[in-house]
Design a protein that fits this description.
Blueprint: E1 2-7, E2 10-13, E3 18-26, E4 31-39, E5 46-52, E6 57-59, E7 67-72, E8 77-82, E9 91-99, E10 102-105, E11 109-114
Length: 115
């Protein structure tokens, strides 16, 4: 089992920044990728960014050049630095870990960007 605990969400004005953190614990050996997804009201959950165990990253087009995903393997933690936030970034952000054929999810953290 893998447990994921997110932190760092909140309320910010348009153009502001936030950093999300996700700490993994449990049987974390062979997690092949971790990432962030988000779900806005009435919309499907979508990938924001992910990073593999060797550091390859992938971003949604809507967040490229604004968001940066990184990981600290010594702390089993993945981060999402979000800059130049827009109202359309408002959503619940979920941490995800992929291990084998399974997906593990955090509880979610709310990000609200006011206009």
């Amino acid at each position: 089992q893998v447990q994921l605990v997110e932190s760092g969400g909140g309320l910010v004005q348009t153009g502001g920044s936030l950093r999300l953190s996700c700490a993994a614990s449990g049987i974390i050996f062979s997690i092949r990728a971790m990432g962030w997804y988000r779900q806005a009201p009435g919309k499907q959950r979508e990938l924001v960014a992910d990073i593999t165990s060797v550091g390859s990253t992938n971003y949604a087009d809507s967040v490229k050049e604004r968001f940066t995903i990184s990981r600290d393997n010594t702390k089993n933690t993945v981060y999402l630095q979000m800059n130049s936030l827009k109202p359309e970034d408002t959503a619940v952000y979920y941490c995800n870990a992929k291990k084998g054929s399974r997906d593990y999810w955090g509880q979610g953290t709310q990000v609200t960007v006011s206009s």
